[in-house]
């Protein structure tokens, strides 16, 4: 009973953060409540699995590779590399931008403005 109370209290606390625009469930971006974020994440995951089944593993990997190539063409190679540096610094707790600032790593975001 005590663990159920703790569980319920924890969910209530987590539920207030999405209302302020924070994502608390990976893949739940855009949900305005904890439950909404859970449903979004589950649907997105299931959608990706379905697409992989349709294309096969190789086709699905190729699709991801083409998406990366397209993004590199949009940003230019220099900007794409800069974005990768920033992404490589990210951890579960902190974004790449936060870690770069903490560690004094220079990230030139002007390099990755899209050239449409």
TrEMBL record:
<dbReference type="InterPro" id="IPR022377">
    <property type="entry name" value="Sm_Hydphi_plant_seed_CS"/>
</dbReference>
<comment type="similarity">
    <text>Belongs to the small hydrophilic plant seed protein family.</text>
</comment>
<dbReference type="InterPro" id="IPR000389">
    <property type="entry name" value="Small_hydrophilic_seed_prot"/>
</dbReference>
<dbReference type="GO" id="GO:0009737">
    <property type="term" value="P:response to abscisic acid"/>
</dbReference>
<feature type="compositionally biased region" description="Basic and acidic residues">
    <location>
        <begin position="95"/>
        <end position="116"/>
    </location>
</feature>
<dbReference type="InterPro" id="IPR038956">
    <property type="entry name" value="LEA_5"/>
</dbReference>
<dbReference type="Pfam" id="PF00477">
    <property type="entry name" value="LEA_5"/>
</dbReference>
<feature type="compositionally biased region" description="Basic and acidic residues">
    <location>
        <begin position="1"/>
        <end position="20"/>
    </location>
</feature>
<dbReference type="GO" id="GO:0005829">
    <property type="term" value="C:cytosol"/>
</dbReference>
<feature type="region of interest" description="Disordered">
    <location>
        <begin position="1"/>
        <end position="116"/>
    </location>
</feature>
<feature type="compositionally biased region" description="Basic and acidic residues">
    <location>
        <begin position="35"/>
        <end position="55"/>
    </location>
</feature>
<protein>
    <submittedName>
        <fullName>Uncharacterized protein</fullName>
    </submittedName>
</protein>
